[in-house]
Amino acid sequence: MKAQTITPFPGTTVSGPATDSQIAFLMAGADRSRPRAHLEQIVAEAPAETLDPVRLRSAWLHLARENDSLRMVLEDDEDGRLILRVLAEPQLDLRLLDWSFAGAEEQQRLMAEFLEADRAEGLDPRQQPGWRVTRINLGAGRAAMLWTIQHAMTDGTSMEILLTRLWEDLVDRRRRAPPATSFAEVLQRKPALGREGAKAFFARMLEGHDRVAPLRPHQAGGTPRMRRLRAVVPAEAIAALDRQLAAMGATQLNAVQAAWAIVLGRWTGQPAACMGLVDAGRSVDASWAETAGCLISTLPFQVDLAARPSLRALLTDLRALTLEMRRHAHVELTEVRRWSGRHGAAPLFDTVVMYARRTLAEALEARGCGWTNLQLVEEGDALVTLSVHGGAQMRIELEHDAVRLTEDEAARMLGHVTRLLTAMGAADPDAPWAGLDMLSPDETEALLALGRPRDMGDDTLPCPATRFEQVAAAAPTQPAIIDAATGAVMDFRTLDQRANAQAQALADAGLGPEDVVGIALPRGADQIIAMLAVLKAGAAFLPLEPDQAADYLAKLLDAAGARALIAAPGAALAEGARLHLAPSEAQLPAPPPRPAPDAGRLAYVIFTSGSTGAPKAVMGLAGALAAHADAAIARFRLTPADRVLQFSALGFDVMLEEIFPTLLAGAAVVPRDARPLASVAGLLDLLAEHEVTVANLPASYWHQLVADLSDAPRPLPPSLRLVVTGSERVLPGPYLRWRQLAPGVAFMSGYGPTETTITCTIWEAPAEGHGLEHSGADIPIGRPLGHAHAVLRAPDGSLTPRGGQGALWIGGAAVTRGYMNDPGQTAAAFVQDPWSPGGRLYDSGDRARWNRQGELMFLGRGDRQLKLRGFRIDPAQIEAVLGEEPAISRVHVDVAGGPPPRLVAWVVARQPLDAARLSQEMLTRLPHYMQPQIVQVEQLPLTPNGKIDRAALPLPPSRTKALREAGAPQDERARLIAACMAEVLEVDEVPTDADFDELGGDSLLALRLVSLIQRRTGLTLRATDLARHPSPEALAAMLAAGKPQPRFLVPIQAEGTGVPVIAVHVLGRNQELYRPLAAVLAPDHPVYGLTVGYPRNLDEIDIPRIARGYFDELQRHLPDRPVCLVAVSMAAYFAFELAQQLRQAGREVALLGVMDATGPGGRPPLRGLPLLLAHLRELGRDGPRHLAQLWQRRREARAADQRPEPSPEPGLPSMEQVVEANVAAVEAYRPKPYDSPLTVYRADRSFWDSPAAKASALGWNVVAQGELTLRDLPGTHLSILEPGNVDALAIDLRRRLADLGPKAPRPAAGLPPDAGRG
After folding, report:
1. Which CATH architecture best describes the domain 1049-1167+1215-1297?
2. What is the average pLDDT across 166-187?
3. Which CATH architecture has domain 864-956?
4. What NCBIfam families does UniProt report for this protein, alphabetically (predicted)?
């Protein structure tokens, strides 16, 4: 490669501060996890004569002289702002390549490789003008030009302008007049443009931001990987759409905005959507039309879908909104955030929409340029970027982060957009846009199929009383009820005949269908007899908890219109006008006559809480109760041999699930006594004494059961085969511990509103493994039981796409009649099922999504979403993270009233918690705005209905008071930091205890604040320090404490109390090599990395010296605990020496694992015929893929030889030099014998390893004096650490570490989590 560089003439001028768009582009490109973000590559071909090197050099220099954006560099000014300076003379980095020796196919391959290498080299406008040019001789009179430029220095319109001027200069040497306005003038004029109109516009548009939600609220782990998908809307569909738009005065852009807003609304389950809308930035001033530079802005564009019900209203309003927004395209994103009152860390949008009438190639052709085979290669950093080019056909490109959004999800989204645009052209413009279908027929059918139960029950007799009588007649002497307190057994005959006698008494009193009979009896046989008697009489029962206040129960009886009450003699409730019956031991062989079975007959009434505070009376049906019993019998696999615990409170519908399926299966009900409420031991004694096989426990009690068994292990009764839990959220941490405590007991988690007949969906844990999306994931609520089906719906009533969040609606036989005497609420919650003629759906008010396994994931109440400081917070997400803490058994997250309002987590734990440690660790898992104050309580207060009593939760002390009590200094240092914060936030004053994020600070302002603090005070801070210590007081306290921060130790995943796994020396960019392993080992084993980073001096690379630094780091920050060291390739020698030093200091190295590394004894490969045979075996197994892999290896090696990687900064050694220095260090190192366990992991795709290599454990046997193990892992040299393959390594590490070393304490103070700003 030959480079020609023009040395700049001295002298620069300041053009002004960088825009928010420029800063955002630079920040994204500087992120080591996405180095290709916003690096633009334009490839164009032309005749070789046109691209003559001398002519090309002259044309680019002239272009740079007349367009100041090509002469700009960036730097920080004394106030910490990023500013642009304009060089007096241009710098040109022109590189020349010759590919004329290669054919067309080979040139395509070379171009692909070179583009990748060019992206990897990157550009830094802080060091030089952010662009370069490469001229490539293709032979046969053709040449290609690659123009590489940082997006912060240009935009799409500028590319069109500059490439047009370049072509004109190259072809006919025409020298146009320079642009009317330079980029520097644009930057200087923008701040002076009016803001008042913009402030009012954005404040108005972004009202109701709690009605929008991000497309993907949780950041997935792993390095972002951008992928692109493309689609075309055909010409005939666009012609129809254009006719519609012309009639409404709207444009294609408005149609795209509407389509994407509908897609977002249906995927997020919200009535509004907010996207980032890219504007060219030139409509503000006509003189900017031909200005080259980064003028674009990406500003929030919020669409209130619910306020615009018809397609015409939606499109015409979007047109008006777009025109008004263009007048304010000069404002900055930080200003918009401040005007809208949004929290500094809250993203305004996570998807971006860009529309242009023509592609760059089409625009250049229209300008008369002769460029051919033009290709634009670029990559953004948004979760999704929708790029649309209009015209006779509409070309749509969807770029997405494949780590957070799967290829399948992205492809379906793209299909949704194209179907909506097509449907708009054929739609009635005055009809509701909600009628536009975006799902394919196959997708619709798949969603409906997901919501159907796996095992549909047969139609059975819809009368529980008749079904019970049939069971009693078939097995009259079989035990039906076993009283836990007395041990008394009642058989089916006795139970049936006593119920007959009581039913006769009810019938004699004139009670029958639709009459309600209250039952206020203690748990036991009399209560069960009473329910059966009411059903036998054809009436409906109202179960009551007799221990509750008589006045409260009387109100329930009155609300339900109860005509009779079955209660003990002398009960306070018995006084009154209604009929009172007492339990009796009378028996009759037959029940009184009753009407024929009717699925729609009222069977029971149960009260549930209401949003107004008054309980609602739900009317349960006979057919639904019978269908539920059939579904539960099948799902719980109930047989006459079972004994089922009746645990639930008598006023809850779960009580019906414990009784009716049991009796209709011919099994025995075991009503509990008081022992389980006294202690968990009492429950276990009861289960053992009565040989209970099935227990249905509330989640709150089950959590306590797990906590007690963890503290004091005790075997479960051998009779117990199934535990069902539900009613509340099941935390993942206790669930994983339960699987270890009760491996032989089946586990199910159920969900079901009272309005849909008890449990209507259920999830069963698999026999092997945890069955979750990952080890810290929420517990699913599963698939529907046989009597129900489920659908997820968007606010407009359409089906929620798979992977999206939607409102959970329940249908099928499970749906109850509705609310007694409340037709308004019944009509609002119970509607006709559009996908099942004659059926009904119930709106549960809960949110859910379908996971990849086809199970429902509960996302919380639709009305439980918290809004705090302008940010929407899902408390269930915080509860899930806290729930993984081993000591925590229950947790509730809510907003405590102010002023100021605060996010609080009330936790119940088995031991005192270190709230500071927990808060610090949560910073590694959740963004700063989702960090709660942690308040430990003995128990969560409950209402009489068993729900959290929010009013009784204790309020935490104020955050300011907590800081002062902790000794945070109120000194000059804190006041200086507060003054810097006020300047950056552009406010008069900032209190020293104020939170930067809560005042509107964001990631862009954080960078400026850190720089400004350093310049004004000399204090060195990082943006991550501000994330952990957001107030001036907290920052000052951190600086005053002066705790040493780790130099080399990096937390990759800090959760877990098992032996920590330490990855040594070679970690990959942003520790990406070991992140898959860390994810699989969570939540049991924390994973850290040790790395010296990029060396400034190659002499620093010495194995004993570096290992000593690593040793000191572990001694300081992870002392007094065993460790597991792992390393890949030549990093194994650094890990080996570190293990030696730790052992010499008396530290326990539980395991040293070296991965696919050649040992000191060498790794002899196969040669000659054995190597050929090995190739043939691989070819037979993998086919052409084997040859492709070999070619890929050779190509990578050749490319590496041809292009040494650049150093990250001028004056530093190149990457090639660093690698060579590491190799030299390994060659100079003389390892000593090692006497502790050493495991050598070999990549099983290393087919060239000879038998001698394997016998010597890849050459490590010469130094191993302790246990030496060789294990194969699936994959190649580095792919053994990739998702899927790495599971084998994790399984082996878990097994090997299970009994090595005690459960260790948390890391020593001073070790920060790997937390960044949101």
Report:
1. 3-Layer(aba) Sandwich (3.40)
2. 84
3. 2-Layer Sandwich (3.30)
4. AA-adenyl-dom
